[in-house]
Amino acid sequence: MGEKNQVAWTTMISGYAKNHYPREALLLYNEMEKEEVDPDEVTMACLISACTELRDLECGKKLHAHIHESGMRICIVLGTPLVDMYAKCGKLESARQLFDNLPEKNVVAWSAMMFGYTQNHQSEEALTLFKEMVGKSNQKPNEITILAALSACAHLVI
């Protein structure tokens, strides 16, 4: 293979991240930086997911800062993994602020925030968010959203 471009780097990083090799994805990103190849939103989303799998909040914060510094817009592609990362790392206030500021929310973003509340023992907040999604948004719950709501209900009973 000739010179590695941004697409080639992102493909490799994505492959590592999606196949549960988060450390390798992050190491490859370090190599990408050394080669002075700029990441795009997809690259950053994959890297944030790698940080989430490792529950590495500091790494996620550094990537979030890089997103801002590079002028990338927090769209659904970047916003949802950031919400998920902050929630899974126990930073619900940061997750909720990102969620509330998303210019548009899809069912995956709603589900990520709901699961974040449930996983952090805030089931009532998860159910309030579910009611908001069903009542006020144009998104319809899918199987994952229903699972998040059921999980919240189960945690209330326990």
Description of the molecule:
This protein has helices at residues 6-18, 22-34, 41-54, 57-69, 76-88, 92-101, 107-119, 123-136, 143-157. The protein starts with 5 loop residues before the first helix and ends with a helix. With 158 residues, it is mainly α. The model has no long low-confidence stretch (mean pLDDT 95). It is elongated. 75% of the residues lie in helices and 0% in strands.
Outline the secondary-structure elements.
Blueprint: H1 6-18, H2 22-34, H3 41-54, H4 57-69, H5 76-88, H6 92-101, H7 107-119, H8 123-136, H9 143-157
Helix pairs in contact: 1-2, 1-3, 2-3, 3-4, 3-5, 5-6, 5-7, 6-7, 7-8, 7-9, 8-9
Mean pLDDT over all positions: 95
Radius of gyration: 17 Å
Total DSSP E strands: 0
Structural class estimated from helices and strands: mainly alpha
Unreliable parts: none
Number of H/I helices: 9
What is the percentage of strand-forming residues? under 5%
| Shape annotation | elongated
The description of the largest β-sheet is: none
End-to-end CA span? 55 Å
Helicity, as a percent range = over 70%
Brief write-up:
The chain is mainly α and 158 residues long.
Jot down its keywords.
mainly alpha; 9 helices; elongated
